[in-house]
Amino acid sequence: MESCYSGNLIIESKMFDYLSPIICIILGLYAITKVKTLAQWSVYFFLFLIPLMLLLFLFLEIIICRFYDFFTGAFGLTYLLVLVCITLAMIIKTTDPSKILPTENVVIDGNNILGKADWDFTKLVNFYQTMVQSGLTPKLIFDNTIYRNLIEDGLIIKGQTIEDSLTNLFNCSKSAITVSQKGEKADPLIIQYAIKYQCAVISRDQFNKEEDSDFSSHAARLKKAGMIFGVKIISNALVVDGQPKRNKLLFWVWVSMLIILIFLILFTPSP
């Protein structure tokens, strides 16, 4: 731009017409809080506020011109393109569990997640199958009380065990299903499994209730390590509630590129 670095880029633009009164008002209000008399205010305004406003506009012009200089070159355009791609990659959400969960082995709190799905077994089955198709190895652990839900939905027949019914329902091996003993909770089994195999937990439970005191310290360690994930419903389907693993790396790459960009724009020589 021909007017760059001449001091006229901002002053001769509509931006100056719009911004100058706003900045004057803001700086004037600030001055009123600092001085008490009209004479003091006048001195403050002419000796401090007007020069400050002009400096702000000149600084803004330098920033605009340097951005223009940088991004008109091939390197600048390429740099901007990479930065935009990284930004979009962080913004765009994914529902692929293998890109969110930190471990291949995963233990699912069956009753808890089924409750989130309004006790609709179809949603939980689809959630399980999605994990398998993503290359994960999910382990389903249920409370013995799941028997009532299987009865209500007509998913278990007389003489059939809970494990057999669930194995048929999820189309999986018996090793992928565990059901707690009658009168016992599944929570300790879930945490024990996660600790033993160092795997992620899918549950909305915080495992910090009074009845969880025997294993709450283990659950707290898992939570601190970012190994406990909740779920949410998207398009009537269960998905893992979490950020993609790549985002941690991409965030620091993005921050580094932004710092380098600011350095290049502010500290490289101007024409």
Description of the molecule:
The protein is α/β, with parallel strands linked by helices and 271 residues long. It folds into two domains: 14-92 and 250-267, no CATH class; 97-243, Rossmann fold (3-Layer(aba) Sandwich). The protein has ten helices and six strands; from the N terminus they run H-H-H-E-H-H-E-H-H-E-H-E-H-E-E-H. The protein has helices spanning 14-34, 38-71, 74-91, 110-116, 121-133, 146-152, 162-170, 187-197, 216-224, 246-267, and strands at residues 105-109, 137-142, 177-179, 200-202, 228-234, 237-241. It has a six-stranded mixed sheet, sandwiched between helices. Helix 1 packs antiparallel against helix 2 (38-71). It starts with 13 loop residues before the first helix and ends with a helix.
Q: What integer is the average pLDDT?
A: 82
Residue windows where pLDDT falls under 50 for at least 5 positions = 9-15
In the CATH hierarchy, the third-tier topology of the largest domain is known as Rossmann fold
Share in β-strands: 5-15%
The number of strands is 6
Radius of gyration: 31 Å
Biggest β-sheet description: 6 strands, mixed
Distance between the termini: 11 Å
Count helical runs.
Answer: 10
CATH class of the largest domain equals Alpha Beta
Task: Name the shape in a single word.
Answer: elongated
Helix content: 55-70%
- Number of domain modules: 2
Class from helix and strand fractions: alpha/beta
Helix/strand order? HHHEHHEHHEHEHEEH
Q: Give the spatial strand order of the biggest sheet.
A: 3-2-1-4-5-6
CATH architecture of the largest domain: 3-Layer(aba) Sandwich
